[in-house]
TrEMBL record:
Record-linked Pfam families: NTP_transf_3
Name by which UniProt lists this protein: NTP transferase domain-containing protein
Keywords annotated in UniProt: Magnesium, Transferase
Keyword Transferase: yes
MF-aspect GO terms: nucleotidyltransferase activity
Classification lineage: Bacteria, Pseudomonadati, Pseudomonadota, Acidithiobacillia, Acidithiobacillales
Domain MobA-like NTP transferase, chain residue ranges per copy: 4-163
Native source species: Acidithiobacillus ferrianus
Taxonomic superkingdom: Bacteria
Length: 202
């Protein structure tokens, strides 16, 4: 089975006392992170790994779904080191998801899986109508092993830079006009804006 790596290793300092993954959508009793885990499971990802780093209890306090927990004890090396903790000893492909990413619909997540398995593709990701985006990223087992081998001290020890190294034939970028991403869900104002956009999402 393909795993999902839910990245929640950052400090989340600007979100206040509560972690941004603990915020709730209007009309829903579940937390944002519970919503993420449920969506990943519906798309067939198993197991779902929760990768923590700084102050993990803030995230765990609002998580009510079963996940496999992996903690980055070398979090001072940055977010790429947290990703590498999740990539360690994976038996298959994996979907890399920052905790503050709004996931595409389940059919699109399944499509990312099919693409990586059907061809000799190393990575697949959706993009928005402005050619932006990049998350979530589906990585093949072979490329996951290569990412795990990158030194955290390297200048290009970032997922976006590693993606830039891939030839166009190895990284499929799927255009989807309705794909929305919210890279900043830290402050209350940013969160309210994202919720309004999510309610308008078709």
């Amino acid at each position: 089975m393909d795993a999902a790596l839910l990245l929640a290793g950052g400090r989340s300092r600007r979100s206040g006392r509560g972690h941004k993954a603990c915020r709730r959508l209007p009309g829903e009793g579940r937390s944002w992170i519970d919503r993420q885990v449920e969506c990943l499971r519906r798309a067939g990802f198993a197991p779902v790994y929760l990768l923590t780093g700084y102050r993990p209890r803030r995230v765990l306090n609002c998580l009510h779904q079963r996940v496999v927990r992996r903690h980055n004890f070398k979090r001072r090396h940055g977010p790429f080191s947290t990703l590498q903790v999740g990539l360690h000893n994976l038996s298959g492909a994996a979907l890399v998801v920052p905790v503050d990413t709004i996931l595409p619909p389940v059919p699109w997540l399944r499509r990312l899986r099919r693409i990586v398995h059907a061809r000799d593709i190393l990575a697949a990701s959706p993009i928005d109508r402005w050619d932006g985006g990049g998350h979530p990223v589906m990585v093949s087992r072979r490329w996951a092993q290569s990412l795990h081998a990158v030194s955290v001290e390297a200048a290009d020890a970032r997922l976006d830079r590693q993606l830039d190294h891939l030839p166009a034939t190895a990284h499929v970028r799927l255009p989807w006009n309705h794909f929305l991403r919210y890279p900043r869900l830290n402050t209350g104002r940013e969160w309210r804006s994202a919720r309004r956009r999510l309610r308008r999402k078709p």
